[in-house]
Specification:
By secondary structure, the protein is α/β, with parallel strands linked by helices. The protein contains 13 helices and 26 strands. Bound molecules: zinc ion.
C-alpha cells in the first residue's frame, strides 16, 4: 500500500477529527446545572486582559455587558417584562450616565510679564491645570506664600501678616515637615486643602510649584478626580524651571528658597512686585455611559407572577487602578476575578438554571448585572429609581459580591435582619449544612443590596470575605475556589427557588445599625490586615494579611483577633479604624491578638499609607 496516495485523505480525516473534537470541547461545557467549568469560563473571560479590569465607562466594561447580555439570550431570558420574545443583545442593557471626571479644554494658559520680559508657558509641559480647578481667567500680582499652609492650631501660618486679596498665590508642593514622617504639618499638605486655604485667604488663583529635587522636576500626577465639585479657584501646577523664572528678581532659585523654608521651618512669604501674571483654565466635566444588564424570566403562578425576585451582582471593577485601588500608584490591570467576576459568574449560572428548569418559578425573576458599583453603587441606585417592576412588587433582592474565596467553608451572609423569615428560610435549605455560616443583620453595607434595602426591600448578601488581593492587580482568576463557588451558587439557587414559591409575604424589617461608619479618612499609616466585616464585638478579626506588610512582619496571621492596638482597646473594626488615625508611619507599637484563645503580644512597625 502506498501511503503517499492516502496522505490528503489522512489530512482531511485529521482536520475533521480536530474540528469535531473542538466542537465537542466548545459546546459540551454548557450545562443547565451549575458547573465549575462554566463558572470558571465566565470568570476567566471577565477577568481577562481583554476586558482590562472593566472600569465603568470603558470599552472593557462594555464588552463585559455584551457578554452577559449574549448569555441571557442563550438562556432564553427576555429583555424586559412586557417583551414577548428574546431580542437583540443591546435591548438587555439599561444605560445610565455618570460623572467620569474632567477633560482638559484647549484654553489653558499661563502668560504675563516680568517687567518688560513676556512669558507664555505651555500646558502639559510647563504647567498643568489640576482636575479640581475651576474654569476661569484671572490676572494679578503674585504673592509667594511658602507651602500655603494655614494651621493656626499648630502655630504655623504662611498667610500670616501678608495680604493676598486680589492676588495669585504661589506656593510649594508638600510641607515644611516633608522629611519627617511624624511631622504635624503633613496633614495640611494636600493640594485640595491648600486650595481651600488660599481661597479663604483671599487669593484669586493658586500656583503650586512641584517639589524641587536633583533632577528636572515633573508635573504632579494626580489621578482623575471624579468629584465634579470644583474648588472655586483656578489651580495650576508648574515645574521648578518655570518657578525659577518667576522668582528671578527675588534673589532665590526654587531650590534655595525651598531649602531655606525646610531649614527654618517658619513662614517666609513675600510679594513678587515685578510680575503681572494671567492664568486661564479650561476644564470640561465629562459624563460617561454605563449599563446594567437585565434579563427577565416570567413567573407562572397566576397571582405571584406579578411579583419579582431580583438576583444581582455587579460586573464592573477598577480598570487600570487609580481611585478605589489599594495600590493607587500601581498602573496595572486590576482583574477583579473575585470582585466581582465571581458574583457575575454565579448570577449567569443561576439565570441559566432557572430558565432551563422544566417548571417555571411561581414569582417572576429579574437577573441584573450592575454597572458602576465600585464608584458608588451607581448602577443599582439607578435601577431602584427606574425599576422594571415597581419596588413594592419586588419580593426580595439577593446580591452576590465576592463569592470566589471560600476558605474553611466560611460563608458570610449579610442582611438577615431585613426580614423575619430569612433565618428559617435559609436553614430550610439542606445545602445550609455545607457551610460555616456567619450572619450579620445589616441590610446596608458596601454593595448593591444596600440600594434595594433603602427602598424597603428585604435583602440577602452572599460574600466570602476580604483578602490580601482585594482591590489589587493580584485578584486573578487562578486564585478562585471554583468548587466553593459552585456550592454557594447551588445554595443560593435553592434559597431563590423557595423565595419564588413562598406562600406568605416576605416582610421587610429595618435593622439600621447605630454603628459609626468606618472611614479611612485621616489615616496615614499602613498595616496590611484585611478586616473581618462580620464580627461586631470582642475585637477585630483578621481575614487575611498582606504578604511583606507591616502586619506580616509583626507576625499577625489570618484568623487572629486584634484586641489591643498600641494603648487602644479594640472592640470592632470601627474602633480599629479610629485607632489607626492616631498613629504615624514609623511608630513602633505593641499589638495584642487573640490566637486560639490565647493572648499574644506582637511588635509592629507602622508603614506609610499610599
Ligand atoms: Zn470592589
Amino acid at each position: 500500500m502506498n501511503l503517499k496516495k492516502y496522505i490528503p485523505v489522512y489530512i482531511i480525516l485529521i482536520i475533521t477529527t480536530f474540528l469535531f473534537l473542538y466542537s465537542i470541547e466548545t459546546e459540551t461545557y454548557r450545562s443547565d446545572t451549575v458547573t465549575e467549568i462554566e463558572l470558571s469560563k465566565h470568570v476567566y473571560y471577565l477577568a481577562s486582559d481583554k476586558l482590562e479590569g472593566r472600569r465603568a465607562g470603558t470599552e472593557g466594561a462594555f464588552k463585559a455587558a455584551q457578554y452577559i447580555a449574549n448569555e441571557f439570550i442563550a438562556y432564553g431570558l427576555l429583555p424586559y417584562p412586557d417583551a414577548d420574545h428574546i431580542s437583540h443583545w443591546e435591548d438587555y442593557l439599561q444605560p445610565f450616565e455618570f460623572g467620569a471626571g474632567v477633560e482638559m479644554g484647549k484654553n489653558n494658559k499661563l502668560t504675563g510679564n516680568i517687567e518688560n520680559d513676556e512669558f507664555n508657558y505651555l500646558e502639559g509641559k510647563d504647567f498643568r491645570t489640576l482636575p479640581f480647578s475651576s474654569s476661569d481667567t484671572v490676572s494679578g500680582a503674585i504673592l509667594f506664600a511658602g507651602f500655603g499652609i494655614s494651621a493656626k492650631e499648630e502655630n504655623y501660618d504662611d498667610y500670616d501678616g501678608v495680604s493676598l486679596e486680589g492676588k495669585i498665590a504661589l506656593i510649594f508642593q508638600g510641607s515644611p515637615d516633608i522629611q519627617d514622617p511624624h511631622g504635624i504639618l503633613n496633614r495640611f499638605a494636600t493640594p485640595r486643602y491648600k486650595t481651600i486655604a488660599a481661597r479663604e485667604a483671599g487669593a484669586k488663583a493658586l500656583i503650586i510649584i512641584s517639589q524641587p529635587g536633583d533632577e528636572e522636576t515633573q508635573l504632579m500626577r494626580l489621578g482623575t478626580d471624579r468629584n465634579p465639585a470644583t474648588s472655586g479657584l483656578p489651580v495650576i501646577n508648574i515645574t521648578t524651571q518655570v518657578a525659577d523664572k518667576l522668582l528671578e528678581n527675588s534673589g532665590y532659585t526654587s531650590s534655595s528658597l525651598y531649602n531655606k523654608l525646610l531649614e527654618s521651618r517658619s513662614p517666609n512669604s513675600f510679594n513678587l512686585y515685578t510680575i503681572q501674571a494671567s492664568i486661564q483654565t479650561d476644564l470640561h466635566p465629562i459624563t460617561a455611559i454605563c449599563n446594567n444588564v437585565i434579563g427577565y424570566l416570567p413567573g407562572s403562578h397566576p397571582d405571584k407572577k406579578n411579583e419579582v425576585v431580583v438576583i444581582g451582582a455587579h460586573f464592573d471593577h477598577l480598570g487600570w487602578g487609580g481611585q478605589g485601588s489599594m495600590a493607587p500608584n500601581e498602573e496595572a490591570i486590576h482583574y477583579g476575578a473575585d470582585d466581582n467576576a465571581s458574583g457575575t459568574a454565579g448570577l449567569l449560572e443561576l439565570a441559566q438554571k432557572f430558565a432551563a428548569h422544566g417548571t417555571k418559578p411561581d414569582r417572576s425573576m429579574l437577573f441584573i448585572a450592575f454597572g458602576a458599583e465600585e464608584i458608588g453603587l451607581i448602577g443599582s441606585n439607578y435601577y431602584v429609581e427606574n425599576p422594571y417592576i415597581p419596588n413594592e412588587q419586588t419580593t426580595a433582592m439577593i446580591n452576590l459580591d465576592m463569592i470566589g474565596r471560600l476558605r474553611n467553608q466560611e460563608l458570610v451572609i449579610f442582611g438577615v435582619g431585613s426580614s423575619p423569615v430569612w433565618e428559617s428560610l435559609m436553614e430550610s435549605v439542606p445545602e445550609h449544612e455545607n457551610f460555616e455560616i456567619r450572619t450579620n443583620p445589616d441590610g446596608l453595607g458596601p454593595s448593591d443590596h444596600a440600594s434595594f434595602y433603602r427602598k424597603n426591600i428585604p435583602v440577602l448578601f452572599f460574600h466570602t470575605g476580604l483578602h490580601g488581593d482585594y482591590h489589587r492587580p493580584s485578584d486573578t482568576a487562578d486564585q478562585i475556589n471554583y468548587e466553593g463557588m459552585k456550592q454557594i451558587v447551588d445554595y443560593v439557587y435553592h434559597i431563590a427557588s423557595s423565595l419564588s414559591t413562598y406562600d406568605d409575604v416576605i416582610a421587610f424589617t429595618r435593622t439600621d445599625s447605630t454603628r459609626p461608619t468606618g472611614t479611612m479618612r485621616g489615616v496615614r499609616v499602613y498595616v496590611g490586615t484585611m478586616p473581618d466585616l462580620v464580627g461586631e464585638s470582642g475585637g477585630m478579626g483578621v481575614t487575611d494579611v498582606r504578604k511583606d506588610s507591616p502586619a506580616d512582619k509583626a507576625g499577625i496571621r489570618a484568623g487572629d483577633i486584634i484586641i489591643k492596638f498600641g494603648d487602644k482597646s479594640i472592640e470592632n473594626v470601627y474602633d480599629y479604624t479610629y485607632a489607626l488615625s492616631d498613629f504615624n508611619p514609623g511608630d513602633i507599637i505593641t499589638v495584642v491578638v487573640l490566637r486560639d484563645n490565647e493572648e499574644l503580644e506582637l511588635e509592629l512597625e507602622l508603614g506609610t499609607r499610599q
